[in-house]
Structures are given as structure tokens and as C-alpha cells.
Amino acid sequence: MIKKIVVLLLSITTTGNVIAQTNKNEVTLNQVKLGFALNPNGVPTYTVSYKDKVIIQNSSLGFKLADQRPMDAGFEITNIEKTAKNESWKPVWGETNTIQNHYEELTVHLKEKSEKPRLLDIIFRVFENGIAFRYIFPKQTELNYFIITDELTEFNLTGDHKAFWIPGDYDSNEYIYTTSPLSQIDAWKVQKAATDIAVRTVPDQFAVQTPLMLKTAEGLYINIHEAALINYPAMQLHVNKATNGLSSNLVPDALGNKAYLHAPFSTPWRTVIVSDKAADILDSKMILNLNEPSVIAETEWIKPMKFVGVWWEMQTGKSTWSYAENMDKVDRNGKLIASGKHGANTANVKKYIDFAAKNGIGGVLVEGWNTGWEDWFGNWKEEVFDFVTPYPDFDLKEITVYAQSKNVKMIMHNETSGSASSYERQLDTAFCFMNKFNYPAVKTGYVGKIIPRGEHHDGQWMVNHFNRVNQKAADHKVMIDVHEAMRPTGLHRTYPNFIASEAGRGNEYNAFSNGNAPEHETILPFTRLMGGPMDYTPGIFKLKGYASGDPGRQVHTTLAKQLALYVTLYSPLQMAADCPENYEAHPDAFQFIKDVPTDWDDTKIIEAEPGDYITIARKGKNSQAWYIGAITDENARKTKIALSFLDKDKSYIATVYADAKGADWKEHPELYKITKTKVTSASVLTLELAPGGGAALEIVPVDSK
Description:
With 705 residues, this protein is an alpha+beta fold. It has two domains: 12-158 and 210-289, Beta-galactosidase, Chain A, domain 5 (Distorted Sandwich), CATH 2.70.98.10; 305-593, Alpha-Beta Barrel (TIM Barrel), CATH 3.20.20. Helices cover 16% and strands 32% of the residues. The longest helix is centred in the middle third of the chain and has 17 residues, at 420-436.
């Protein structure tokens, strides 16, 4: 049965630039079209098309509420406003030095037809490569307090599209991606197989995490996510296999409610990016544009950087985070007895400082420096770490003076073991401590179940917690790299000190599990990285036989691909993750890590296909040098790169770090070759990528070498 949609046409209140439209309930920009309507029952609905092809069929909008009737029907339109904006702005750091923000906006003002009507606004923005919308709860005439039990947003698709997905886990994003039609999604099956994830909460068999990447049979690419996640739970997507429909699935709190709102209130934006070119998805800045400008007035102290750290040796079993073997190992005075394997000791940290200074690496991260690691995980203890008390073998003052003498910055580590409530009580103390010892950045962690008990990593309480930490860090001029957080939604525009996060399955899984499939890094830019940079910890050079007690374990890439990840997986805070001795064994290859920037003036997505390959070129900040990263999945690949983005009046030297003949991720991952060649903007380079391989290029003007 075909349902008739009633479109209510009212007069337009114009603000800003008026947009001429034939249908007052439609907005079109470039080849993206959005339509809004109320059905006969007063249910808000929308549709989206691209190049005259429907990509989102008629989809409903609304809410279910606790102790109130739902806000999903019985509406009438009281007014419609249309505006437009076309502006540019400069990020504090990023993939380009200027971002264009061009959209046309439709604001629909709704009012219930009842004795005590409630008000609801929906704002739609149409960009050249997609659409976004959010709900606005205006100040009401009656009750201004709402408890959301369900958000009823739908994304009704037109077919059983290919999906690149991970389960809708309330507490973790650290899964390998599954590629399958929507109809074959089974989150429970994937969860059961993911034995290397410590904290898992997957209550919905057919829920997937956003960003969700889709490809239609006709060759269209669709990405669904959200932007500006503030004071609201993260959105997952429930898959209706019978209809190919998706619906919002919000993360609940300890009481089972989803969100607590007080009008006036704005929800996060729901985003749909679409193109017939996969590269356009990666090139989109829609999510960033939907976030508010920086709340930090003076940002000179926010500086992208590279760092090394006492970390990979712990992941691979060479050393430990803990000082003693366990809490029972004490002497007659009750003091812990050193195991002799503690990585964060003064002498060892000095070696990392020396290595950083020698190679021009700006920072050193030290994990396991503070007391509490003997009994920190899975015990529901609320007070585990105090963030200021070092172990006896970590001389904080000596290390601080030594690092300063070498012009190296120390990066703080604050693991909370999931006790966010304890961390909040200690935030001022922790950040004052960082200021005292001149730590410019902190890596935070939230391994374990969240305290307050019953809350989830991706729920409203924790969303607010992470943003409170961002603000407190900004007050103390400290940059934040957060691990075990919900996936980002572009908030680094608002808080540019929120410089990186994990929120996905990083390189560390190659140390203690079956690892990441060769295709993993070709999917991440289309999924996890859509909302913000990722601390993936690339740069592993010893790719086989590095794990204590498991000599067969290996990283599922070649060495050249590890170099390419510094370009393809963007982060302004990049770790050279391997141990110094493994870099010293390959000084010629390590040169690329030393040279590659962490901040960029321009980015070109040369080619991309999710799950298969990606090639990206970036121009260094305030530099004439370009860097290219090309990666492939488990299949070998020959790719040709036209260098037309180079200045036409210059000659360049291209240094190519590539897979050598016979290289492959499984048997010979460490085979690489380095060549130099003269190039111009007319040159076309041919690269041979090994299975699981890649290539990294530095292209520098002749007169600057």
C-alpha cells in the first residue's frame, strides 16, 4: 500500500540570505536534495536524494518520553525558515589550512495539536556532499524537562547495501570490521568471537556502531554518523533486515533511560554524507563544520607533535606497567618489592629521552609511572590511581630536569581504570601537577567498567565527563589524547586541545591478540576517522617475533605500510610506537618518521575504496614538501599517482619508501627499498604495493634539499 504524504506549505520567514525554492519544504544544493513532510497523522518525515537517486526513503522523526506521551505524531507546521551560508574558517590544526562551510538550511517549527501543545523544531542543513539535521526543544509553555527513552530517527535505505560495520557496543569500539550486506549483520556473533576485548556490552543483535559506511549496488557511497555530541548519549543504529531500514539506538544510563534534557536544548546532528566517489567521503568536512568554533581564545600553546614512549615494550611483554609482580609482594615494612621488569624506571626513561632528542622527536610518553598498577583492572575499585604519586624507581624531578636539558617534552599518562568519578574529583590536582612539571599533553585511559556503576562509556554521563575533562584541560593549557572513549564527532573544532583519541581498534591489538586484518587500515578512514583523528600508534618495524611467549605473533602489514599510515591515518599527535632499538636497526626507513609532519596545509585524496586501498597526499604546514601514503589490503596492487598537485614551475626530489621485491605482510614484511627520483607536476609515479603493503613518499623542492 502506498501511503499519501501531506506536505504543508506555509509562508516563509526569511533570515540571512533568502533561498529561492519552488517547494518550501525542499532544499537542494549541488546534487543533494532534502525533502520534509508531515504524514496524515502529523508524523515528521524526510527524504534524501543524490543526483536524482533516492538514498534515504521516507523516514520518520521523533521521540519516546518517560511519563509523557511520545513526541512523534500529531504535529502541525507553524513556520518554516530558510537560510544559507557560505564561509571559510581556519582550524587551529588539521588536514587543511582553510575549510569551506557551504550549506542551505531549512528550519521547521512544529507544534502539537492538543490542549497542552509541545513545541519541537527540526533544523536541516544541506551540503554539497550530504545532509545533516538536529532536533531543537524550544522553551515550552508547560513542562521544560524531558526524559528520553528512545529517539525515533529513521534512515530508511533503498536496498541491502554492503556495510562496513562493528557491533553496537555500549562500552567499546575496539572491533575488527566486518564487511557484509545489511541483511547479514549479526552483532552477537562478532561479539562472541572478539575474545580480546575486555569490556563488552552488546545488547542488540542487530545494532551497529557509527560511523557506518555503506556502498550501494549502483556504486554510491553513504556514510551515516553524528556531529557535535554534547550532553547526549552516542547514537548506534538498529538494522531492520526486513526493510533495509536503520533507526537510532541511543546508549542508556544506569536506569535504562537514554537522555535527560531541559529546554531549550539542541541534540547532536545526525549526518548523511553521500557521493559516487569514495574519495569524496574522505574529503568531506561536514562533521567539522557542524561543530561550534573554538571556545579557547588563545591557542598558541596547542602544538601538534610526535612522540615515542615506554609502551610497546609493555604491550609485547618485555616490561610491565606494575612495579611489583602483585600486591602481595611486599617486604617486612609492607613496601612493594620490585619485580625487576618495571618499564617506567628512571634509567629506562632516560634512554627514551636520549633517543627522542637524537632524532628530533618532540615528546616521550611514560605509562606505568604512578602507583596502583598491581591491582587496577576489573575489581570495581573506585580509588585506584591518584595521578601524582610515582613508583620508587621513577624519579620525577630528575626525569623532568633531564628532559628539559634535552629539549624534550614529557607526556603524562592518566589511566582511570574506568573510575571516571574518581578522576573528576582529582582533575584540578592532576592538571596542576602537569603544569608544575611542564607536561604539555596527557594520554587518558578508561579501561574497565565505568564508575559510576551502571553507566557506559558511550552514555550521556560519560559524554559530559569527557567534555568536562576537555574544558578542564583547556583551563590548564594541556592537550588531551583520550583512550577507551566514544568515537569522536568533530568536537576538536570546539576544543582544539582535544588533539587525538583512540576509540577504535588500534595497532596495539597486534601485540596481544590475533591482530588487525590487512584491510583494517583501509576501512578506518571511512569509519572511525570520519569524526576526528585517531591515535593508532603506527610505526612498528619489528613485525614478527616481538611478543614474549608467542614467537609466531606478527603485525599484519609490511614495514612500508607502517610508514604510509603516518599519512593515511591522520593525527596531529603521532606516536613512533616501536622500541628505539628496532628503529636503530633501520635508520634509513626511520628517516621518514622523523621527517613526516603532524600538521598540514593541504590534503588530496588521490584514490580510495573502503576495504581495498587508499592513497592520500598531504602538504606540510608552512612547507613546500608533500607526503604521500598509499596502502592496500591483503591483495597486491599496482597504482599510478599523478603529481599534478605539485607547483608547475618547480622540480622536486621524491624519496620513495616502498615494498621491496618479494615483500608481503605474512612471510617477508620487513623487506623494503628506498629510491630517489626527480619529479615535476607532469610526472606519474607507478607504485608496486605488496600484499598487506604500502608506500610512503616525501616530495621536496630541489632547492630545499
